[in-house]
From TrEMBL:
This is Long-chain-fatty-acid--CoA ligase. Residues 74-437 form the AMP-dependent synthetase/ligase domain. InterPro entries: AMP-binding_CS (IPR020845), AMP-dep_synth/lig_dom (IPR000873), ANL_N_sf (IPR042099), LC-FACS_euk (IPR045311). Keywords: ATP-binding, Fatty acid metabolism, Ligase, Lipid metabolism, Nucleotide-binding. It catalyses: a long-chain fatty acid + ATP + CoA = a long-chain fatty acyl-CoA + AMP + diphosphate. CDD domains: LC-FACS_euk (cd05927). GO terms for molecular function: ATP binding; long-chain fatty acid-CoA ligase activity. Its EC number is 6.2.1.3. Catalyzes the conversion of long-chain fatty acids to their active form acyl-CoAs for both synthesis of cellular lipids, and degradation via beta-oxidation. It comes from Lupinus angustifolius (Narrow-leaved blue lupine). Pfam families: AMP-binding. Belongs to the ATP-dependent AMP-binding enzyme family.
Length: 618
């Protein structure tokens, strides 16, 4: 494997031992061969990140929202770092005056706004555990998180605690090992899991990001501007905003309406834009629609400019030198749609389609970086590098200060010691979480001999980048970043009386679910008879569009009755009159579904369902 510039081998691979699969070599970013970043004086906690930024950049605009001018949105109005700091100190005093201090869990429930950051920093100042509250994990998730994490005080949209003006409290000494936040994420059993993240995890990950960008001549600085619209309740946006604060940059907040996001971007003019693939898919679709409707001359000009720049990128030229003239006269309109100043677009939370990534690399005049991480790894384990066109479709090499290896998964045919290494991605290092809150059993399941087992299957590329190719567990993300626990859904949908068996499918490149259904022959024929639907045989009845519509309606009915979320509802189905069987290698002798084999067998059917739905909704 080529290791120049990107990764370095620090441990040899190990053959399978009793009870454990074989493990491939351990790799680390060549940008930082040491396991830990060099220390920064006084930087031991997330509070220190903010405190140091206030000392360095007191008059820089830190937090901005759009002013309301006669009912219309105006310019961004900014709080400086010093003004935000003073508010944090006042709020911290109020929290302490209510009797809450170090180690207490503090919930934050609300949309992204300056108050969210102020509340978080007040927690950081006084050593409270910040517990973001959000309801996208399903009905009752907020109540569960509050009860499970033992939240004592929470911030919501309105101020509910006294000022405490006449009191003062010393800030406690905070250690790197202290827990900074407990972030809840999806669990296969249905209950969210509280991921405990320490100060050191966040600081180390931020140091790794800083190291990468500096080595690629794209370091963050105080003039950078970031638009905050991805949920702060998730680790992805939280980490990016911490990075902005460390460098004295400005964070502007959107108005909370996706239809107005581009307007907010145009006004804010961000330099750093972070997105989930679903957002970038919309950008891609919108741009292609404009190009198609632009007339013959414009379309021809665009196609020529696109091909010319793409060819130069493939030759190894960096994006600023590949086609500077076409950047000005053809692609500038795309650049202006994102405010005109974006230099880095970072995609995460789910895989970005290769064709979308390649297209945006050409037309946005920005670096398109794709990253990979989990809440348990502080959001960042891999990130692709600027001006490396050979990393298209990958998540890049490991970030500095983490170790990565692959573990073989024999039951799925993945060998970490093969010439093309494939296996479960395992991570160790300071950015890895401290455990699941009050769930030591679940922690032991994923933390084995110091390695966090992600459940994702990766393939090392010859250039040292990682490509995500599969999922070991039966839980996956849709393109908008939402987790789907597929076995749980199949148990729910299997309760529809007319269904014999159902296989639910989704992937990280699509925003909705489809399914293959085995109907109950007798029940379906009875329904057809009662509704005067004539058919020659059972096969033709399964092919009837009325049957298809009826079963989708029944699935939707039970899904809504069980309070499933919108993205968990089935949008399209294929009715197979032949039950899943061992003869086609679709199930095990104990009748468990073989998901990779099911996908292989029904691949063309799946593709057609997605194609039909996407075409009708375009």
């Amino acid at each position: 494997m080529a290791q120049e510039r990107l990764i370095v081998e620090i441990e040899k691979g190990k053959e399978a031992s009793e009870g454990r699969p074989s493990m491939g070599p351990v790799y680390r970013s060549i940008f930082a061969s040491d396991a830990l970043p060099p220390p920064v004086e006084g930087l031991d906690s997330c509070w220190d990140i903010f405190r140091i930024a206030v000392e360095k950049y007191p008059t820089n605009g830190m937090l901005g929202i759009r002013e309301n001018v006669d009912g219309n949105p105006g310019k961004y109005k900014w709080q400086t770092y010093k003004e935000a700091y003073d508010l944090v100190l006042k709020l911290g005093t109020s929290i302490r005056s209510c009797g809450y201090g170090e180690g207490v869990k503090c919930g934050i429930y609300g949309a992204n706004c300056p108050e969210w950051i102020i509340s978080m920093q007040a927690c950081n100042a006084h050593g409270l555990y910040c517990v973001p509250l959000y309801d996208t994990l399903g009905a009752g998730a907020v109540e569960f998180i509050i009860c499970h994490s033992e939240v004592s005080i929470a911030f919501v949209e309105e101020k509910k605690i006294p000022e405490g003006d006449n009191q003062s409290f010393d800030l406690p000494v905070k250690k790197k090992s202290d827990i900074c936040t407990i972030m809840y994420t999806s669990g296969t059993t249905g209950d969210p899991k509280g991921v405990m993240i320490s100060n050191e995890s966040i600081i180390t990950l931020l140091s790794g990001i800083k190291n990468v960008l500096e080595n690629c001549n794209e370091k963050l600085h105080e003039k950078d501007v970031y638009i905050s619209y991805l949920p702060l309740a998730h680790i992805f946006d939280r980490i990016v905003e911490e990075a902005m604060i460390w460098h004295g940059a400005s964070i502007g907040f959107w108005r909370g309406d996706v239809r107005l996001l581009l307007e907010d971007i145009a006004e804010l003019k961000p330099t750093i834009f972070v997105a989930v693939p679903r957002v970038l898919d919309r950008v891609y679709t919108g741009l292609n629609q404009k190009i198609s409707s632009g007339g013959f001359v414009k379309h021809t000009m665009f196609s020529f400019a696109y091909s010319y720049k793409l060819q130069n990128l493939r030759k190894g030229k960096n994006h600023g030198e590949a086609a500077p003239l076409f950047d000005k006269i053809v692609f500038n309109k795309v650049k202006q749609a994102l405010g005109g100043h974006v230099r880095i677009i970072l995609s995460g939370a789910a895989p970005l389609s290769k064709h979308v990534e390649g297209f945006l690399r050409v037309v946005t005049c920005s670096h398109i970086l794709q990253g990979y991480g989990l809440t348990e790894t502080c959001a960042g384990t891999f990130v692709s590098l600027p001006n490396h066109n050979d990393m298209l479709g990958t998540v890049g090499p490991p970030v500095p200060y983490v170790d990565v290896c692959l573990e073989s998964v024999p039951e799925m045919g993945y060998d970490a010691l093969a010439s093309t290494p494939r296996g479960e991605i395992c991570v160790r290092g300071k950015p890895v979480f401290s455990g699941y809150y009050k769930r030591e059993d679940l922690t032991k399941e994923v933390m084995i001999d110091g390695w966090f087992h992600t459940g994702d299957i990766g393939e090392w590329q010859p250039n040292g980048a990682m490509q995500i190719i599969d999922r070991k567990k039966n839980i996956f993300k849709l393109s908008q970043g939402e987790y789907v626990a597929v076995e749980n859904l199949e148990n729910i949908y299997g309760q529809v009386p007319i269904i014999e068996s159902i296989w639910v499918y989704g992937n990280s490149f699509e925003s909705f679910l489809v399914a293959v259904v085995n109907p109950r022959k007798q029940a379906l024929e009875q329904w057809a008879h009662e509704n005067d639907i004539k058919s020659d045989d059972f096969d033709s009845l399964c092919e009837d569009s009325r049957t298809n519509r009826y079963i989708i309606d029944e699935l939707t009915k039970i899904g809504r009755g069980k309070k499933l979320k919108g993205f968990e509802l089935i949008k399209a189905i294929h009715l197979d009159p032949a039950p899943f069987d061992m003869e086609r290698d679709l199930i095990t002798p104990t009748y468990k579904k073989k998901r990779p084999q099911l996908l292989k067998y029904y691949q063309s059917t799946i593709d057609n369902m997605y194609k039909t739905i996407n075409k009708s909704s375009a």
